[in-house]
Known about the structure:
It is a single chain. The protein has helices spanning 2-25, 320-326, and strands at residues 46-50, 55-57, 63-72, 77-80, 85-87, 95-98, 103-107, 114-117, 129-132, 143-144, 151-152, 162-170, 174-177, 180-182, 185-188, 195-202, 209-212, 218-224, 231-234, 240-247, 258-260, 276-283, 291-295, 302-309, 313-318, 332-338, 342-347, 362-364. By secondary structure, the protein is mainly beta. It has one domain (39-381). It has a 24-stranded parallel beta sheet that branches. Strands 10-11 form a two-stranded antiparallel sheet. Strands 13-14 form a two-stranded antiparallel ribbon.
Amino acid sequence: MKKNHLKVLALALLLPAAFAVQSCSNEDDPIPPATATGIASNPNDFRGEVKSGEKVTLDATEVYKLTGGVHVKDGGQLIIPAGTRIESTGGTSAYVTVEQGGKIFANGTASAPVVFTSPTGAPGSWGGIVIAGKAPINKGTTASAEVGNATYGGTVANDNSGSLTYVRIEHSGAIFTGEKEFNGLSLFGVGSGTTISNISILNGADDGIEFFGGTVNVSNIISVGNEDDGFDWTEGWNGTATNVYTKRRANGIGNRGIEADNNAENNNAEPRSNPTIKNATFIGATSGESDGIKLRVGTYATIDNVVLSNWNTGINVEHDASVAYFNGTGKITNVKFDAVTTKASVKASAGSIAAVLLANTFVENASATGAGNGTAAPAWAATWGGL
Length: 387
């Protein structure tokens, strides 16, 4: 009897270990997918708020129909995995706004970008993406964004609103008035802690990308076929842009390559717009506002390695503060002009009185490569840019 008791005890000790080994060794057990929650729970009606403390993750296997405004509130996070597709035909009532303190993580890859688009292919099919941060602006301590009425601006230069990488934005934008416009990507007071890289904005109804103050740095930016300016800044943007390629639509619709402002009400407002632009190609047309680069109302900048093709005017500098900064000072270097009627002009604030264009306002370089391929589309956008 004593031996039998020992056998039973040994068996009792071994059984849990055997079950544990069996459980750990069965690698074929399926892992249940994460359940979509909040505004992601119905892909056919994607709209609403990502609330404070809420983390909403989209499912890359679904096609989301953007039917209204998406607001990522302070303390909320919207996560959009590589390969996710979001479609909208909701006009300006459909957009994505990341408010101060909210974060978006739309991180695609070169082979699987995140795509915001419209199945109709019509410019102005939806309102675009807006990010509102806490970095400095010169419109006031804070201001209200054109889209979604989000507050933006502040004193946090390194503010972090998340990251957009390998994202394509198609058929967005609209113009309500001269003061209210929806761009493809609008960056309001966005801080340098935010990542914006490998972004393509195609066939929109207004500007491709516009900066309203802030300190955010961007790289690998495509802006093609948009109906206003390709690349736009105002209100004291101080950041860098490396590798930029813009091109007007084949039928000539569109305006400038760069439209650059400081502050129309006070040309010397601080912080002054003063970005660094390096490695850029701007391809235009001779209709409309045909300036490759327009620098005005007090903006400063440092611009290097630029290709300007098919413009009436390559570099146009206006208003006293900007003219004094750029005229004859060599702040624009390594410029290649291709089929440009007038390489550069300057004009004082009085408008009708033209300032004298001084030597060394720009420095030419016929070997400049711009965004990397001269007037051709850059190789770095080949797989994801939609060109």
